[in-house]
């Protein structure tokens, strides 16, 4: 296991302090009522430091950078049981995330509510998911023997990546997520 140097540890601490300050202020005052300057002050940093660590702006302060998300999607496809369905593996992965998780902590519930009720945060979250499109399409193609440029592969990747935005805002997010995956797995049976 690699040990982080002092500089790397300090960067991680600063990043974490900024995230915690932003989330605390957003939950207390509402996203639109908090400025980057207030977050910087709360975390005892300069405004420029906020943008150094979070160049995508205020929206990005409470999210991961998307790398973990892409890696999780790929791992779900690659590490599924032998003969296991790709969509089942992706459903299982999403079931562990945010509003779909079983028994989420009160903080996760409040954070999810904040995201779903704040257009800028909801839009940024959707963007983070859709940034994974090419990576997920490649993983699906590799696992299925299809070309990643195949429209069916690209469409499937896109549909899966839209599930979090589509289902998370529903009164019962997990049931909504399952309904979408049921549709993807069985196809449309209506007229």
CATH architecture of the largest domain: Orthogonal Bundle
How many E-type strands? 0
Q: Indicate the overall shape.
A: globular
CATH-level-4 superfamily name of the largest domain: Tetracycline Repressor, domain 2
Which spans of ≥5 residues are poorly predicted at pLDDT below 50?
A: none
Mean pLDDT metric: 92
* Spatial separation of the terminal alpha carbons: 56 Å
What CATH calls the topology of the largest domain is: Tetracycline Repressor, domain 2
Structural class of the secondary structure composition?
Answer: mainly alpha
Per DSSP, the total helix count is 10
Percentage of residues assigned to helices: 55-70%
Largest sheet: none
Q: Element order, helices and strands?
A: HHHHHHHHHH
Q: Which band does the percent of strand residues land in?
A: under 5%
The total domain count is 2
The CATH class of the largest domain turns out to be Mainly Alpha
| Rg on CA atoms, Å | 19 Å
Pfam families: TetR_C_14, TetR_N
InterPro entries: Homeodomain-like_sf (IPR009057), HTH-type_TetR-like_transc_reg (IPR050109), HTH_TetR (IPR001647), MftR_C (IPR041347)
Keywords: DNA-binding, Transcription, Transcription regulation
Organism: Microtetraspora glauca
Descriptive report:
The protein has 10 helices and no strands. With 191 residues, the protein is an all-alpha fold. The protein starts with 5 loop residues before the first helix and ends in a 5-residue tail after the last helix. 66% of the residues lie in helices and 0% in strands. Helix 7 runs antiparallel to helix 9.
